[in-house]
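#data-curation
PF: Archiving a pair of folding outputs for the training set. Convention for this channel: one message per protein, sequence first, structure tokens after, nothing in between. First:
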Amino acid sequence: MKRLIVLVLLFLFSCAGETSKLEKRDGIYFLKLEGSHYEIGYQHATEFRTGVLYVGRFFRRILPDEFLNLLKESGFIKRLEDNFPEELRDEARGMADGLNGELFNYEALIIASYGYYFVDNFFYNQQLPMCSGFVAFGPATTDGILINARNMDWMQMDILLKYPTVILYRPEGKNAFISIGYPSMIGVISGMNEKGIAVSLLASSSTDCTWDGTDITLILRLVMENADTIDEAEEMITSARIASGCNILLSSGFEKTGSVVEVSASRSAIRKPENSVLLVANHYLSENMKETQAGWEGELEWSLYRFSALQKLLEENYGKIDFDAARRIMETYPVGNTFTVHQIIYIPEKLKLLVKMKGASEKYVEFKVK
């Protein structure tokens, strides 16, 4: 009889482990989603309903029903939808269905997924996202392993910090990947897939933007799902018609290389590592991209200041960069500052990343793609 009870309990615990999609690790919400894009959207809404509705309440204060209906009747939402990847539209439908249309209906989710575009083009005269990052490998690191670190700095994101979120996606027939952000996100601002490809979005305001483009976060979502190499990731970004300007920090752990893709609606340039190191902030370095540089007063100077400080820290630590050194570098002012929303250290050869998120604890929490 005792043996039977033990077997039943083991069965129940194993089932609970398989079906539990949301847990909390040191203040970070960890959500696991799998299946078709529609199923992923539906699970996102039903398994993390509280977090998604929290973001929805904030968003719908900005976009009340009368304004949403006006955008729909004018054809504006259709214009965004036409540039929205089809499979991700299915995910938006799944999320809306999972919420039964409460706060976030399908049209509201389409607009919310263009969040980066709206911030970049309507609020760039205020405090934009302000980020820093680097890739180091080979002789720059202690054991030759590739290390990719990034800070996401955005003072206006505080409203979303109640639910610091990491999501593990297992989309049907595509790469599994991890995304770091907040509930309700369909796009990706920071992530790494099972092929060791890591992506980080850093703002770089540009006058070259368009309504008839795709939000960069949605392109990065497709990169996570489909790119097996850094060349494929670069091609997916540079061949897309992106709505607005930005820098993308890429790394490939198994290929041991990285790149920065500087992009706007009609232009792009790729920077490669020098002496096994590559760094990036919120401004363009390529000449053809500099011509389009925009931003609020003082943005470029602040970005150049952080870039210079990061460059000096990497030079001082060259050949000694490991996790601890990367952590110290990214936490040193002005690279680390009061605007930092999350800090990530990717170690893609081991398919793991370590995250510290504002709104959670002061600890770095480890997550693995597999």
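PF: Second:
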Amino acid sequence: MLLASLTDIKSYLNKTDTSHDTLLTLLMSGVSSKIENLLNRDLETSERTLYLDGGRKYYYLPAYPIDITASFVVTVDGTVKTVNSDYFIYEQEGLLKFMYEVCSSEPKILKVVYTGGYTSSSGVLQVPDALKLLCVQQCAYEFSRRLDAGSVSTTMPNGNSGYQSGLDWLPAVKKALYPFRRTSGGI
């Protein structure tokens, strides 16, 4: 699933012709996947069923925002728990917080059925504008560097040479993506 559209990247690059549309679409797909991996979370909305180990009070779910209008069912050792009594949902953070630590540290004692992630329209996820822009910026960078992808140094017109790491992350993009990353608490 794409985080930005072909129109977004073409607008950013100020391109009106269609000569690179296939390549730009491929880049958008690749960059979107790289971003999803870096964020350590599933971005596309769907219903999920998770079986988690007990022994904790906080569980960071792998897909958010959590759709609180959809069914959200939590069972511990076969007993259904009640939202805002036994546990709380922080939908924007993807956090499931129990009032008390799930007693047993038994494997897969906790079952969570929920819907999380971003919806899509015309094949593009409806992510926050900041995330979309970061995807477009990284894609534009990779498009502009496509002919020197294996290069590790460049000689400037003034004779200076500098180190470049091929098609690695733009440092500013990578830094700006971290607030969107799922917390290391994981599931």
